[in-house]
Each structure stands twice: as structure tokens, then as C-alpha cells.
UniProtKB/TrEMBL annotation:
PROSITE patterns in the record: CALPONIN_1, CALPONIN_2, CH
Name assigned to this protein: Transgelin
Family: Belongs to the calponin family.
Gene Ontology biological process: actin filament organization
Taxonomic lineage of the native organism: Eukaryota, Metazoa, Chordata, Craniata, Vertebrata
Keywords assigned: Phosphoprotein
Source organism of the structure: Aotus nancymaae
InterPro entries hit by this protein: Calponin-like, Calponin_repeat, CH_dom, CH_dom_sf, SM22_calponin
Region annotation Disordered: where it falls in the sequence: 121-142
Claim: Secreted is one of the keywords in the record: no
GO terms of molecular function: actin filament binding
Biased composition (Polar residues): 121-131
Domain Calponin-homology (CH) span(s) in chain numbering: 1-79
PANTHER family in UniProt: CALPONIN, TRANSGELIN-3
GO cellular component, one term: actin cytoskeleton
Length: 142
């Protein structure tokens, strides 16, 4: 389990820069869990958000395989987004993460925006409180 994940994260780095230099082939539970932890640490360093990373027991005990899948999908998305040539898989399997999209507005544009009511706030054209009754009173429908 852990060895495969370590090989996966190492494959996303150029040769000689792998984050996990020694991958043990041991079948001992402690070593396997240690390698899962090394993978998780390396995935976070690679750019996967902490909230997208599963816990070691999620995989080891099979408790939350959906969390494991989310981590792998997030790792794939980061790899595709980096586009550094190390990811050699099918890019359409993962979505590319949004990059920065800065916008520059002049002072005049910012001032104009302060007087506009956004459509999300709705409109108050034609609105009044005519016919409204006090709280707790039934509506008078005739």
C-alpha cells in the first residue's frame, strides 16, 4: 500500500529530486503505515491542501476510501495544473485548478460601482409595506 503511493509521488518529480529517496519493500505493518505517512507529507509539500489529505488509518483500515480517492484526485489536479512535464498521465482525468486572475480597476470605476445595487440583492422598485399587518396577525384575504 505505502510503497505504491511513495512511487506515485516520486514519479511527479524530476529524477534525483524525489521526496522519498528510499522506498522499503517490507510487508511489515509499521513500515507500510510509515510509508503512507511519508506519502501524505510529500503530497502536502507538493501542493495538495491539508483539507484534501486523508488520514493514514483511512487507507490502512479501509475506513474512508472516499477520502483516499479525494486525495489522489487532488494530487492529480495539482500535477496537471503545475504542467512541469513530470506528470505523464492523461490530463483529461483531472481538472486543472484555477490560477490567479487579477483585475485592475481605476478609482473612477470603483466609485461608480459603489452606487450600483447588485442583482443578487434584488430590486426594491415598486416595493412598499402597504397591506402589511403586524407580527402575529393573520393576513386579511378578501
Amino acid at each position: 500500500r505505502g510503497g505504491v503511493l511513495c512511487k506515485l509521488i516520486n514519479s511527479l518529480y524530476p529524477p534525483g529530486q524525489e521526496p522519498i529517496p528510499k522506498i522499503s519493500e517490507s510487508k511489515m505493518a509499521f513500515k507500510q503505515m510509515e510509508q503512507i505517512s511519508q506519502f501524505l507529507k510529500a503530497a502536502e509539500t507538493y501542493g495538495v491542501r491539508t483539507t484534501d489529505i486523508f488520514q493514514t488509518v483511512d487507507l490502512w483500515e479501509g475506513k474512508d476510501m472516499a477520502a483516499v480517492q479525494r486525495t489522489l484526485m487532488a494530487l492529480g489536479s495539482v500535477a496537471v495544473t503545475k504542467d512541469d512535464g513530470c506528470y505523464r498521465g492523461e490530463p483529461s482525468w483531472f481538472h486543472r485548478k484555477a490560477q490567479q486572475n487579477r483585475r485592475g480597476f481605476s478609482e473612477e470605476q470603483l466609485r461608480q460601482g459603489q452606487s450600483v445595487i447588485g442583482l443578487q440583492m434584488g430590486s426594491n422598485k415598486g416595493a412598499s409595506q402597504a397591506g402589511m399587518t403586524g407580527y402575529g396577525m393573520p393576513r386579511q384575504i378578501m
